[in-house]
Amino acid sequence: MHEMAICLGVIQIVEEEVRHGSFSRVRSVCLEMGALSHAAPEAIRFCFSAVAARTVAEGAVLNIVELPGVAWCMSCSKNVEIAQRGECCPCCGSYQLQVTAGEQMRVKELEID
Asked: What global pTM score does this model have?
């Protein structure tokens, strides 16, 4: 389950921010996740609470902002939204798609005390 490793990375980012900031507790974490990031939001939520225990993020709310997958169609030259890899272009039906967005994952903001 790579979601656990992702959550460990999120907590490392949070702890690094604590070292550089003047706060002692994190109330919420906003995580942006692309639809093509290969991580399940439900699993991320489950793992986050376990990983955050006994850290400055214990009890913090995890807000996940899901971003769409976007691809450029080589056949019709349009940017199209896709939910997963392997889908056809919703405009022309071609499978010649180049992913341009939706693979990212980043900590967007922290709400702190």
From this structure: 0.84
Q: Residue 40 in 3-state DSSP?
A: coil
Task: Specify binding-site residues for Ni(2+).
Answer: 2
Q: Residue 93: which residues within 8 A CB-CB, separation 6 or more?
A: none
Domain that holds residue 25: 2-112
* Closest residue by Cα to residue 35 from 106, 107, 103, 108: 103
Residue type, 102: G
CATH number at residue 29: 3.30.2320.80
On the 0-12 / 13-18 / 19+ scale of CB atoms within 10 A, 82 is: buried
Q: What is the pLDDT of residues 44-92, one digit of tens each?
A: 999 999 999 999 999 999 999 999 999 999 999 999 999 999 999 999 9
Binding residues: 2, 73, 76, 89, 92
The binding site for Zn(2+) consists of 73, 76, 89, 92
Q: Count of domains in the chain? A: 1
